[in-house]
Design a protein that fits this description.
Elements (H helix, E strand, L loop, with lengths): L5 E6 L13 H18 L16 E6 L12 E11 L3 E10 L6 E3 L2 E6 L6 H13 L1
Antiparallel strand pairs: 1-3, 2-6, 3-4, 4-5, 4-6
């Protein structure tokens, strides 16, 4: 993981498991949400608790997809990484990777996600920050 990535460690709980004994597909998107909020908090885009007078939503998720490479099971320990993959004039993209700590560094999936800003937000400072970081890569 480099300086542009934000990572969080998650233990797979019994409540994450479906009837087939593997992590339910919908849980992966909740893992991405946790990593996304941590990444955007680290960059100063999301502030919790929300200051008074700040709009409820700064951006809207326009698209999210996921390509599953291998299943996760109960008590796996995983690292969920998030980073800004693209920065446009009206949107930015985030990418994620889940790597199981118990199986070296084999990626478990690699989903792209696009986020679009709503009209109520003023994301210029974030776009500038991300654009500078993106150009350095």
């Amino acid at each position: 993981m480099d300086d542009h990535e934000t990572g969080i460690e998650i233990w797979i709980r019994s409540t994450d498991i479906d009837g087939d004994g593997i992590v339910n597909n919908s849980r992966f998107f909740q893992f991405f949400e946790q990593a996304r909020l941590e990444h955007l908090s680290r960059l100063g885009v999301v502030v919790r608790p929300r200051p008074p007078g700040v709009a409820d939503r700064a951006f809207t998720i326009a698209e999210t997809t996921c390509r599953f490479l291998a299943p996760l099971r109960h008590r796996d320990r995983v690292l969920v990484s998030a980073w800004t993959s693209t920065v446009g004039r009206r949107s930015f993209g985030l990418a994620y990777r889940i790597t199981a700590s118990t199986t070296a560094s084999r990626p478990r999936l690699a989903p792209p996600r696009r986020c679009g800003w709503t009209r109520t937000a003023a994301p210029r400072s974030y776009r500038r920050t991300c654009a500078r970081r993106w150009r350095r890569r």
